[in-house]
Amino acid sequence: MSIFSYHLVKLPFFVAAKRIFSNPISKNTNGLIHSEYMTAMTLGSPIFSPSRILIQQVAVFMQWENNTALENYLEQDSFGRVLAKGWHVRLSFIREWGKFSGFRIPDDKDSLEGPNSPVVAVTIARMKPLAVPRFIHWGRPVEKLVRDNPGTTISLASVKFPNTVSTFSIWKSEKEMTDMVRGHSEVEKPKRHSDAMKERERKNFHFEFTTLRFKPLGESGEWKGQSNFIPSV
Prior knowledge:
Layout (H helix, E strand, L loop, with lengths): L2 E8 L2 H7 L12 E10 L11 E12 L2 H10 L1 H7 L2 E13 L19 E9 L4 H16 L4 E9 L3 E8 L2 H9 L9 H11 L3 E15 L13
Antiparallel strand pairs: 1-3, 1-4, 2-3, 2-6, 4-8, 5-7, 5-8, 6-7
Helix pairs in contact: 2-3, 4-6
């Protein structure tokens, strides 16, 4: 059964900077369906800020034919062993909105036990270069909405030059996530996400875009000295 994984790891500065331009993950990796290697960013931070693009912090989003392929990669591949020293979560696919090339969306969909179950959301897009200023205008308020929402246990953005952008968040419950999406959160300016989606429908920011929802299967390792980001798993 196909599974997804999301990895976070900190690398030495010059190693991380070099790998921005040379992806260390081979497309011929046994059992790998697709991967996106990205540099982490702080959600909602000013565009021209040292915290905006965190060169040493790497985010990798991957799809595997099965759990065994992921296990073998983490144990046997040189960069897989680097990822194994960081933190990662294993994910079972639930829902997709939009399309993004490379990933193979499973026909069999998992489900949550209920609306109070934890859920993981990943968005990933290829930007239209001329739409970047408008995307930043509408996107940064949404980043802050997710970053500051008490329903998340971890949230971040990531980028791969020249035009891939992504977000990742773990939510304590599906209800808290859907409340944010629909503008029902009990936070300041709760409709920031729904307003941005209306603007995207009016005039798209992206060549391709998808939002993926997952059931977390388990996590491993630590990120910034913390672990257990998934409630009740």
